[in-house]
Amino acid sequence: MVRHVLSILVENHSGVLSRVTGLFSRRCYNIDSLSVGETEDGAYSRITVVLHGDTYIIDQIQKQLSKLVEVVSVKVLLPEASVYRELALIKVAALPAVRAEVVGIVDIFRANIIDVSPETITVEMTGDQTKIAAFSALMEPYGIKEIARTGLTALQRGASNIRETKLEEEM
User: Fold this and answer.
1) What does the pLDDT look like over 135-166, one tens digit per residue?
2) In this predicted model, which residue has the larger pLDDT, 90 or 165?
3) What superfamily does domain 2-76 belong to in CATH?
4) Which superfamily is assigned to 83-149 in CATH?
5) Which of 4, 42, 70, 92 could bridge 11 with an S-S bond, Cβ 3.0-4.6 Å?
């Protein structure tokens, strides 16, 4: 099974997310990651879904999603033609004796320290899943107290956008 990233443009009103995710659960498709947010036009939201499956399953999901009235467009985002990012907040134990070491690693990963307490440092970082995993592995010996991750969000590279893709398909 291969990882796929779907970008779904939907009307921005209550119940749409429930209908979209309900489609996945009714057909026993597991969602690995889900990210939702309003677009540049407040009338629409973008849902980014990461799941594993073969080409047949992804084609079926695209067709089924396209049948939902509130779905404007569905696009599979290929890794070579897209930009993927995730946000993570990571709270690390950082007593004064090791604080400089932790800050040095944070700098190497170009992350941001957003909170400091006498016992911990909270770090904000964006990147792909491998970058976040590598940072977490380096922080493990210091003691990770908490992690919160947004899930993957993605855009197609270049000038095209999800609405133009839908218009091209309709022509």
Assistant:
1) 999 999 999 999 999 989 999 998 877 776 55
2) 90
3) ACT domain (3.30.70.260)
4) ACT-like. Chain A, domain 2 (3.30.70.1150)
5) 70
